Hints:
mainly alpha
Amino acid sequence: MTTEPPEERDDDGLPPLADHLRNHPDRPGEGRKARSQNRLLLMTLFAVIPLLVVFAVVLGSLASGPPSTDPEPGGGSSSGLAQVTRYCNYVAQTEEAFQPCLDENRDRAFLDEDTNPARYAKGELTECGPDAGPRCTARQGVRPE
Length: 145
């Protein structure tokens, strides 16, 4: 007659778990370290890295300073077109005079002038004076509603 050896018992009096259950990460107490490492990794990816990117962009923009208001050589910049448009909005007395003004002032020679239209085009004046044409909408003393 053979007798089986007595089973080992855990502290709570239950038989021991099989190896594949004993090493399972969902077992209480086990895997907490792995879960906290995963949380740290997710926090790093979704919180810290975007903050670092924003910080780097802000520092880069502070280091480069404000955008230049000087006209670029060659005359092909979009800021130059905006200046010509502002100038022509100021000086054009009729709708028909606006397009020829744009064509004539592509070289932005008016930027050397010390006149109200040139100052308005450069951004030194923010409102249209009494000498402005009807296309200039930022009139002095008139607030937009």
